[in-house]
């Protein structure tokens, strides 16, 4: 018995939906950006070659040029993309952090960021791109623009609990500064235990500072 037209139609393999031009463009751009970050981590800025990034991404030189005309265009876009992922992560972690000791949760996020591939790549960019002050300035601008929403995510959580915003901003700025110093100390072989003690002391002092404007409970008469 022959199959009905409906059965024959059902038996045909589903036709693969064609991607739109925008979807193809986004996918190709993403491959180039991922390849750029991988090569920057492996080789640094000075040994980075845009042709190698295109080859690693499986993109023709013409396709690469269509998306990113120069080496610095590609690197700048790659750094910006990874910074955005850090912003998204900070907002998620701050939103999910418990209300107890938010500064310690924020410190853990900062510590992870300072140990991340993104931070390593950014430092390398600023050091190696010294001959191109304009490009170095662009990396600094991206970093500063991304850091603001990262800080705001944690500062907003502190203010939700009643902390004065100016105090929350000051506390988080100081926390960032101390942890950057600790990060450098660890990189040059400092004592991890000693730096952990400094961080604990910093968080305790900042928590005391944030509570300093709380009204004291009235003394019973």
UniProtKB/TrEMBL annotation:
It holds the Pfam family TetR_N. Residues 1-28 are annotated as: Disordered. InterPro entries: Homeodomain-like_sf (IPR009057), HTH-type_TetR-like_transc_reg (IPR050109), HTH_TetR (IPR001647). Residues 26-86 form the HTH tetR-type domain. Keywords: DNA-binding, Transcription, Transcription regulation. Residues 49-68 bind DNA. It comes from the Bacteria. This is TetR/AcrR family transcriptional regulator. It comes from Novosphingobium beihaiensis.
């Amino acid at each position: 018995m022959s199959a009905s037209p409906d059965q024959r139609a059902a038996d045909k393999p589903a036709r693969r939906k064609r991607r739109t031009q925008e979807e193809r463009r986004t996918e190709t751009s993403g491959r180039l950006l991922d390849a750029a970050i991988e090569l920057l981590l492996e080789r640094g800025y000075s040994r980075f070659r845009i042709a190698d990034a295109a080859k690693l991404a499986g993109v023709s030189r013409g396709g690469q040029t269509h998306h990113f005309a120069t080496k610095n265009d590609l690197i700048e876009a790659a750094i910006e993309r990874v910074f955005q992922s850090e912003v998204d992560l900070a907002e998620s972690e701050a939103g999910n952090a418990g209300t107890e000791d938010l500064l310690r949760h924020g410190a853990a996020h900062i510590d992870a960021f300072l140990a991340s591939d993104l931070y390593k790549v950014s430092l390398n960019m600023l050091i190696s791109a010294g001959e191109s002050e304009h490009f170095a300035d662009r990396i600094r601008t991206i970093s500063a623009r991304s850091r603001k929403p990262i800080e705001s995510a944690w500062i907003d959580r502190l203010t939700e609990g009643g902390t004065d915003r100016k105090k929350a901003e000051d506390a988080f700025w100081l926390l960032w500064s101390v942890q950057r110093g600790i990060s450098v100390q660890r990189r040059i072989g400092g004592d991890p235990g000693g730096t952990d003690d400094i961080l604990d002391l910093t968080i305790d002092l900042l928590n005391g500072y944030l509570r300093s404007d709380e009204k004291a409970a009235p003394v019973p008469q």
